[in-house]
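User: Quick sanity check before I run a bigger batch. Here is a single chain. Can you write out its predicted 3D structure?
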Amino acid sequence: QVQLVESGGGLVQAGGSLRLSCVVSGRTFSSHAMGWFRQAPGKGREFVAAISWSGGTTFYADSVKGRFTTSRDNAKNTVYLQMNSLKPEDTAVYYCAAAFARYGSRWSEDFGSWGQGTQVTVSS
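Assistant: Done. Predicted structure follows.
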């Protein structure tokens, strides 16, 4: 049974920073790409960032490019999302997800396992 557990969410003022972590157990973490998605109240789930199995390739949604950075530590089975210059519109529940393949995707259908989510709230 694959488990993904996110942590690091919270309340922060606009312009602040947070770092989310996601620990994966129950599968070969280093063989799979990982992704981050978010869902704001009343909206659908949207892609935020993805990272390949080795960490060598990353890509981001235009809305977070230049502010967010994803990375991974395969020795710790952990993927991270560093979020800087946060804006109120970044407020959402953030989810990490494990892809079926080694290289990431912007599409939630390409991810087979999901965490429970962590709330990020940015006040103005």
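The chain is about 0% helix and 50% strand.

User: Great, the batch can go ahead then.
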